Amino acid sequence: MARLLRAISENGGVVFYAIDSTEIVREAERIHKTSAVTSAALGRLLTAASLMSATLKRDSDSITLRMKGDGPAGLVLAVVNGSGEVKGYIQNPIVELPLRPDGKLDVGGAIGHNGTLSVVKDLGLKEPYVGQVPLISGEVAEDITSYYATSEQIPTVCALGVLVDRDLSILHAGGYLLQLLPGASEEEITRLENNVQSMDSITHMLQQGMQLEEIMERVLDGFAPQILDEQQSFYRCDCTKERVERALISIGKLELEKMVKEDPIAQVSCQFCDKTYKIDLRQLLSNLEKKTEK
Ligand code: ZN
Questions:
Q1: Per residue in 9-53, pLDDT tens?
Q2: Model's pTM, two decimal places?
């Protein structure tokens, strides 16, 4: 379970979210058996999604982040709901790339520098809200910042990090999101910029044993931040046999009939949690026919 902290500056002009997402990224690594750089790529996107879930009002609201770049990792996906349940997927979990010159994992190289980040917000309205921006670097945090600036016109600072050990286990993961509400003065913006620039990387701070509250005090130094609440976020997949059946039905009757000839029992794995469902396709087709006759 991950701690997710929500805070606001004393004057109400700056909101701040921070998370220690180590447990979430560990679970993702266990399910998807990711290599170091893909643990970091998927882990950063999961961390961003968890942070963004703090902006949702109802448990049933959801946000889907979809990064598609021209790198070897392929599609990277994270889905979160308002109760903090998050799940993710990476198309190619095994990617090996040399470290960047600064010694960091080359997440931008794995995802790719060209492509798109799309954000789908389902807030229970008739239509979901969809925003899409071109990738800035594929490093995830910058791309999230760009999404907020372009699609939602909210000045945002985003920091995300995943520290992977030599044996590929996840040592630390976390992030923070800082957003300026309308009416922030130039002075405040400069002060925040200076604070952020002087910060250590999030994983380094977690490694040193810093609590989210201390990180908040550093980022919002001079803003007298107040904690609004603490939420929980965790990796959890909500797949069911019914959902898998619905997905199969959506590929069409003709295609299903073809599949029955090959094997009447389909083995379908959930892309988010790797759980396998055995679906009797003949049964599914006969149910489908009954429905269409009605
Ligand atoms: Zn699942």
A1: 998 899 999 999 999 999 999 999 999 999 999 999 999 999 999
A2: 0.93
CA–centroid distance for 266 within its chain: 30
Question: For position 77, what pLDDT does the model report?
Answer: 98
**Ligand 1 centroid, distance to 55 Cα (angstroms):** 24
From the list 29, 58, 33, the residue with the least C-alpha distance to 46 is 29
The rounded Å distance from CA 244 to ligand 1 centre is 9
Q: What is the pLDDT of residue 290?
A: 82
Q: Which residues of the chain have pLDDT under 50?
A: none
Ligand 1 centroid distance, CA of 272 (Å): 5
What pLDDT does residue 294 have? 60
CA distances from 278 to 60, 73, 238, 242 (A): 28, 28, 17, 11
Tell me which residues have their CB within 5 A of the ion that is ligand 1.
237, 239, 270, 272-273, 275
Question: Which residue, 164, 138, 152, 39, is CA-closest to 95?
Answer: 39
Residue 220 CA to ligand 1 centre (angstroms) = 38
Q: How far is CA 294 from CA 242, 247, 287, 288, in A?
A: 20, 21, 11, 10
Q: How far is the CA of 277 from the centre of ligand 1 (A)?
A: 10
Tell me the C-alpha distance between 2 and 227, whole Å: 17
CA–centroid distance, 155 to ligand 1, in Å, is: 35
Ligand 1 center to residue 276 CA distance, Å?
Answer: 8
Q: Which residue ranges form the domains of the chain, and what is each CATH number? A: 2-235 (3.55.30.10), 241-293 (3.90.1280.10)
Q: In angstroms, what is the span from residue 241 Cα to ligand 1's centroid?
A: 10
Which among 147, 152, 139 is positioned nearest to 76, based on CA atoms?
139
Q: How far is the CA of 131 from the centre of ligand 1 (A)?
A: 25
Single-letter amino acid code for the residue at 240: T
Residue 111: name the closest of 67, 64, 57 by CA: 67
